[in-house]
Amino acid sequence: MKNLVLLGGGYGNMRILHRLLPNNFPEDTMITLIDRTPFHSLKTEFYALAAGTSTDKEVRVTFPEHPRLDTVYGEITKIDTKEKLVYLDKDRTVQYDDLVIGLGCEDKYHDVPGAEEYTYSIQTIAKSRCTFEKLCGLPAGSTVAIVGAGLSGIELASELRESREDLKIKLFDRSHRILREFPEKLSNYVKSWFEKNNVEVIAESNITKVEPNLLFNHEDVIEVDSVVWTAGVQPVKVVRDIEDIEKDSKERPIINQYFQLINDEHVYVIGDCASSELPPSAQLAEEQAERVVKVLKARFKNEPLPEKMPEIKLKGYLGSLGKKHGFAHVMDTAVTGRLARLMKSGYLWFYKRQVES
After folding, report:
1. One domain for residues 246 and 183
2. Consecutive 10-residue runs of the chain (357 residues): their mean pLDDT?
3. CA 276, CA 345: separation in Å to the nearest integer?
4. Which of 288, 297, 294, 298 lies closest to 11, judged by CA?
5. Which of 300, 322, 344 finishes a domain?
6. CB of 89 within 8 A of CB of 75?
7. Element of type H or E holding 160
8. Sheet holding 85-88, edge to edge
9. How many CB atoms lie within 10 A of CB 177?
10. Which residues partner with 228 through β-bridges?
11. What values do phi and psi take at 124, rounded to 5?
12. What is the pTM for the complete model shown?
């Protein structure tokens, strides 16, 4: 039996599974899914788990089942593309014929002293649980600093405000305005929401050091009770450590138009750990997965690959500001308020219904 191995049960590989199962792959092929947890985690909702407004169960979905789908749980320690082997903890190995790497990303600390040691994270469900325990266990009146005002930082700050009205929340933004890549209408709306809800936004910040209960911004030393880091990502270490492959300046594997490694047609890379000019998102991972499925199906049938793959065009972005307000940029149109929040809630409901079916 041939073995198609999927590394990571994130948005991209979930899309591949749902396109290939139950009968869109050859009878002589097994699919092996490897993940550290026995469920698909909804990473776009980790901010709500960390803030305490969603439960653990609400941000996970069970993996599909199939007689020729083998699920393996554990920590991936090494990917050997020469030997076609994936190494796991407890001295386990998995051999592959074709491999799809969808392991996502982890925090990038930009060499800021103390950032990795003294900040909390929402990059994994386990880290989000730890962040929840810390933030929701703080005494009344405590100060929480959130470093990074991208979508994750904004949504965490707003959800935490809804969860804990007593906390002092400081959101540090490196740019001169929130969501600088988005229309100014959205930036102004989010800024206004934070002002009304007593979230302090510190623009043009530059965090130079983190110490226990201290945050250094330029020349200012700020007393804090907890710091959450949402200021950039990088591929997970096991992907950064893959030997003898081409990587970009962000240490992401460089891929061709079929999402294969430049020098290896049997290894595909999708999601946050793949080199791309587009910003990382669940939507991008799913679109990449759709194209990988087309390539795999053609190869299953020994058909030639398309001369040119269709360009990925993202539909837009959805963000929440608590449970009642939100913002969206869809088809070059800015939407704010309750309608935008309903759009995000509706998409989440639809997604969970789709993958659970």
Report:
1. no
2. 97 98 97 97 97 95 96 98 97 98 97 98 97 98 97 97 97 93 92 97 97 97 98 97 96 98 97 95 96 98 95 92 94 93 94 85
3. 28
4. 288
5. 300
6. yes
7. helix 151-163
8. 76-80, 85-88, 92-95
9. 16
10. 120, 146
11. -130, 165
12. 0.95
